[in-house]
Amino acid sequence: MPKSPFLLEAQARGLIFQCTDLDALDEAMLAGSITAYVGFDPTADSLHVGNAMSIMALRLLQKHGHRPIALMGGGTAKIGDPSFRDEARSLMTNDTIAHNIAGIEQSLRQFITFSDEDPSSGAILANNAEWLDKLSYINLLQDVGVHFSISRMLSFESVKQRLDREQGLTFLEFNYSILQSYDFRELNRRHGAVLQMGGSDQWGNIVAGIDLTRRTDGKQVFGLTTPLVTTSSGVKMGKSAQGATWLRAEKRSVFDYWQFWRNTEDADVGRFLKLFTDLPVEECERLGALEGADINEAKKILATEATAICHGRTAAEEAAETARKVFEQGSTTAALPEIDLPANMLAEGLPAFRVFQEAGLAASGGEARRLIRGGGGRVNDVVISDENQTFTLEDLREGTLKVSSGKKKHILIRPV
């Protein structure tokens, strides 16, 4: 059982899956503040709930007086992480990478405090392009390549799975592990980072970085991974019928984010409260043990607390109040997510299946038709039975058209 406050609470919350030397890391944390990092691939301009475990680990680390580093993969993004992927990622331009890094930074600032806000203990924002872009290939081979065994790299589970599927692995991607290992050593040299954290799929890369730092610099550094989180029904965390659950409000509304957590399966409530909120562990366990109608109240607490971390307390409470008005009072005027639609489209009349498409509740006309045929489509709280039923400006209520998919997905269409 660890004694340092960070590891003690991380273990109690279920944040630890593997650690290279838990006892030695525990001693280092008891001796004083350490610096630890998590790497983020800029493959999109926002992080999503699937990244939340690693972010919450950084948040908890900072809470207990240690210094986090958020490492942007501006350099490694030009290669792409092959871990547990069926095929190579599409290569991105420098402009796209820069745009995505800016969005990811915005996501992270909701969870942790950076050094520009708190110079003494704020998190460091680093970008591995700063050193990787300057590397000489020959120097890299001489300095780093000599310490890597091809047979060991082929034993990494992420590589083995890719080769077993006969999808092929390019030499470009094969270098990813070497560059990630270089990152660990560089962050240790520049900022004294002694711990790399990440998802369980990064274990092989993390261990390789530890080994490189030990071999070349004689330094003891550590690795800690968080578990892969799936729901009780086996769905990977962060995935939904609507796609990724993004952390930026520009990509997923605060109300939809709140609803994502409100829809948590009963069996997952206690676990998710411990992983994704700041509530005390004992309170999370108490709430997770509730049954019947009471578990729904626990889900609302989970939704509000998780949303408050990501979007702020005021926005979270507004989302909770909107949900109460919509689902408990049947209100159509609450602050539901809105989209603008050219007024002439409704002036001319829009068939029901197109209404659901334009509202973003169906990805295609066929999907919208199936939704309506299955009885799951409603407009202004009335079930639609005819997929070709036409809606016009005369159907507006208080200037909007309320469009619903099932009982929990609602959008207001506002003609402009």
Automatic annotation (TrEMBL):
Catalytic activity, as annotated: tRNA(Tyr) + L-tyrosine + ATP = L-tyrosyl-tRNA(Tyr) + AMP + diphosphate + H(+)
Gene3D superfamilies per UniProt: HUPs, RNA-binding S4 domain, Tyrosyl-Transfer RNA Synthetase
InterPro entries in the cross-refs: aa-tRNA-synth_I_CS, aa-tRNA-synth_Ic, Rossmann-like_a/b/a_fold, S4_RNA-bd_sf, Tyr-tRNA-ligase, Tyr-tRNA-ligase_bac-type, Tyr-tRNA-ligase_bac_1
GO biological process annotation, one example: tyrosyl-tRNA aminoacylation
Compartment(s) where it occurs, according to its Swiss-Prot or TrEMBL record: Cytoplasm
Motif 'KMSKS' region mapped to chain: 236-240
PROSITE patterns registered for this protein in UniProt: AA_TRNA_LIGASE_I, S4
Positions that bind ATP: 239
Enzyme class of the recorded protein, top EC level: ligase
Binding site for L-tyrosine: 37, 176, 180
The protein's Enzyme Commission number: 6.1.1.1
GO CC annotation terms, alphabetical: cytosol
Sequence motif 'HIGH' region, location on chain: 42-51
UniProt keyword terms in alphabetical order: Aminoacyl-tRNA synthetase, ATP-binding, Cytoplasm, Ligase, Nucleotide-binding, Protein biosynthesis, RNA-binding
Superkingdom per UniProt: Bacteria
Function recorded in the entry: Catalyzes the attachment of tyrosine to tRNA(Tyr) in a two-step reaction: tyrosine is first activated by ATP to form Tyr-AMP and then transferred to the acceptor end of tRNA(Tyr).
NCBIfam families: tyrS
Subunit structure: Homodimer.
Similarity field: Belongs to the class-I aminoacyl-tRNA synthetase family. TyrS type 1 subfamily.
HAMAP family: Tyr_tRNA_synth_type1
PANTHER family (UniProt xref): TYROSINE--TRNA LIGASE, MITOCHONDRIAL, TYROSYL-TRNA SYNTHETASE
The protein's name: Tyrosine--tRNA ligase
Species, as recorded: Gluconobacter cerinus
Taxon lineage: Bacteria, Pseudomonadati, Pseudomonadota, Alphaproteobacteria, Acetobacterales
